[in-house]
Specification:
It is a single chain. With about 230 residues, the chain is of the alpha/beta class. The protein has one domain: Rossmann fold. Helix content is about 35%, strand content about 20%. The protein has eight helices and eleven strands. The strands form three sheets. It has a five-stranded parallel β-sheet with strand order 4-3-5-6-7. It has a four-stranded mixed β-sheet with strand order 2-1-11-10, sandwiched between helices. A two-stranded antiparallel sheet has the order 8-9. Strand 10, helix 7 and strand 11 form a beta-alpha-beta unit. Helix 2 crosses helix 4.
Length: about 230
């Protein structure tokens, strides 16, 4: 069965080396640090894939405005992999979406039963007092099974839509694999996804993703403490 290369790499690695670190997220503005092993990240992806199926968005389009406003948050990075597991195409905006993903400070685009708000809490705690029709991502995801089915999606199937340009899975995964532990600063939605997740998955490495204001000395200190390559 054809599935996207990054998703296949995540599933293989979760079976073989699930305890290894995959993504460590720093939010320097709040002081938060979250470390996700391969198995933990894969578990969040599977639970989120089940949410997508329950929302009736299989093989649809995921609109993830959160990828534009917070491309470097670990919750953001779960959604593309989960969407690809259910044969979805991902976009960093809500136009034309069958399911919408927002953050706590994003404008609300309500698709009843198919708009999820992510708290961005370091430990994944949920949100309260959401608008009618908006579901809390953490609450809904944690109630889902730990395993999810995978729909086939070949390398030439659409994976990412942005500014009218459609990229296939092969094009999205056209990055140099990373075998080491690297420090990544968030940039564009797709660039961050590639640098912090796809490249390490393809190469067997891991990423330390640092959000928030930091000077060179602070970044160097994080790089040393996390044992990242220079």
């Amino acid at each position: 069965m054809d599935i996207p290369a990054a998703l296949a790499a995540l599933q293989r690695r979760a079976r073989r080396a699930g305890a290894e670190p995959l993504l460590t997220h720093y939010d320097l503005d709040t002081g938060g640090r979250t470390e996700l092993s391969v198995a933990t990240f894969a578990n969040w992806v599977a639970k989120t894939a089940n949410l997508i199926e329950d929302a009736g968005a299989d093989a649809g389009q995921l609109g993830v405005p959160l990828a534009s406003t917070r491309p470097g948050h670990w919750m953001t990075l779960i959604w593309p992999l989960a969407g690809w597991q259910r044969e979805c195409t991902v976009s960093p905006d809500a136009e034309g979406a069958d399911l919408v993903v927002i953050g706590p400070d994003d404008p609300v685009a309500v698709l009843p039963g198919a708009t999820f708000a992510c708290s961005l809490h370091p430990l994944g705690l949920g949100l309260r007092d959401l608008p009618s029709g908006v579901l809390d991502f953490s609450t809904e995801a944690l109630a889902q099974p730990d395993q999810a089915g995978t729909l086939p999606s070949g390398p030439h199937a659409p994976a990412w839509i942005e500014n009218g340009t459609v990229l296939s899975h092969a094009e999205v995964a056209d990055v140099a694999p990373v075998a080491e532990r690297v420090l990544v600063r968030p940039g564009t939605a797709l660039g961050t996804l590639r640098g912090a997740l796809i490249a390490p998955l393809l190469g067997g490495g891991s990423a330390v993703l640092v959000e928030g204001g930091a000077d060179d000395a602070r970044l160097a200190a994080i790089r040393r403490s996390e044992r990242c390559v220079e």
